[in-house]
Each structure stands twice: as structure tokens, then as C-alpha cells.
Amino acid sequence: MNNVFLLSPARCDGRRAQMLLSERALFALAEQLRSRGGAPLGEVFSFLSGLYFRGKLAYATAFGAGTHVITTDRGLMAPCAAVRHSDLVAFSSIDIAAGDSRYLTALRRDAERLASQLEAEASVVLLGSIATGKYADTLLDIFGERLLFPTDFVGRGDMSRGGLLLRSAREGRELEYQPVLGAVRRGKRPPKLERIR
User: Fold this and answer.
1) Quick check: 39 and 73 in contact, CB under 8 A?
2) DSSP single-letter state for residue 35
3) CA 139 → CA 11, 42, 62, 107, 108, distances in Å?
4) Which terminal CB of the chain, N or C, has fewer other CB atoms within 10 Å?
5) d(CA 109, CA 6)
């Protein structure tokens, strides 16, 4: 299947954000972020969020025909798109849970553009929470039954989802999907993933 993946934004770890945005930080990603050319969005979000975003990005890269990252005010961006220090500050000023119009307008614009470009047999897989409507409701309006999510996401927390996606990507094993439309959005917590030996 020619699935296109939509990755929900990174959940920012405060300590990691302070490290990355510090003017005194000397590690490569921080220096790249301060440079004129910026740093790749996927790498920045992987650093800020850790396992969960890293798992989403690895999984989408392994199995997707295209990958887009949902942002707070720029709509959908490619993981390789360059961002700078000022972009991260702008991202952090918008509360997507509150339905900020800057977030919704940009997301709707880019999702509609994507929908018009999709091949007939392609589906859109949301790698993000469907328990709340902050991503799913807007995307459902646009993609309808073509909007899918991994069935194994139900009941899992962020870190468990990240571990599941990373493991699946490493094993070359694509997960099963189901439509968001009509799905049970909250469920019983599944058993913990077994430790990788």
C-alpha cells in the first residue's frame, strides 16, 4: 500500500528544550539550529521528544510513501525541512489543544492540498493520539475513511507507542491499521512490550 504518514508534533521535554535552545550549547544539533541553514525538523523533534518521535520517524521512513510532520503553526512539513531557533520559539507559542486558529487553518490548508494529490489507492496513517480531537477531527473532515491509525495504539501511552514503532521498523514488520472513523478512541491498556535482548 502507498501509505502517507502524518506524524503528530513532538511532545517537548523541558530539559531537552533548554539544552537545545541555550546559546551556550556546543553540540552539533544546537549549533546547526542557530546557523543560517537551520537543522532538519525530524532531527530536532526527535531530540526534543525522545523515543516517541524517534519511533514515529523511523517507522514512517521504513514503510511510508511520504511523511509529513504536523506543526503548531506551519501546517504539514517534511521531516527534512530546515528549522531555526526562532521557528521553535514560534512553535512553542501556540496551544493546539485549545484549537488555536493559526494551527487549524494551516493544518486544514496543507491536509486539503495533500488530499488532492493522493493516489486513488493511498491511505493516510496518523501516527499520533486519536484519543482527543486535536489532530484527528480536522483530518477526518478532510480524509474521511482514508484516515487510518495503528490498531495497536489503542490504550498505549506515548513511550509505549514509540517503542512499538521503533521495534516494528527495526524488524521490518508493518503494523495493522484501521480507520479512525468509527474507531474506539480509548481502550484498555495492553500488556507492556517485552524487553529487547
Assistant:
1) no
2) S
3) 19, 21, 23, 8, 8
4) C
5) 14
**What is the C-alpha separation between 166 and 162, in angstroms, rounded?**
6
Nearest 5°: CA angle at 13, between 23 and 6?
110
Average pLDDT value for the chain: 88
Sheet containing strand 4-7, edge to edge, reads: 76-77, 66-70, 4-7, 124-127, 147-150, 177-179
Write down the pTM of the prediction: 0.88
Identify the CA nearest to 139 among candidates 100, 177, 180: 180
Q: Give the number of other CB atoms < 10 A from CB of residue 105.
A: 12
- The x, y and z cell numbers of residue 46, run together, are 526527535
Please give the Cα distance from 9 to 70 (Å, whole number): 5
Closest C-alpha among 116, 126, 143 to residue 178: 126
Residue 7 — φ and ψ, nearest 5°? -100, 125
Write the pLDDT tens digit of every residue in 55-88.
999 999 999 889 999 999 999 999 999 999 999 8
118-145 residue pLDDT tens: 988 899 999 988 877 788 899 999 999 9
Domain limits of the chain? 4-179
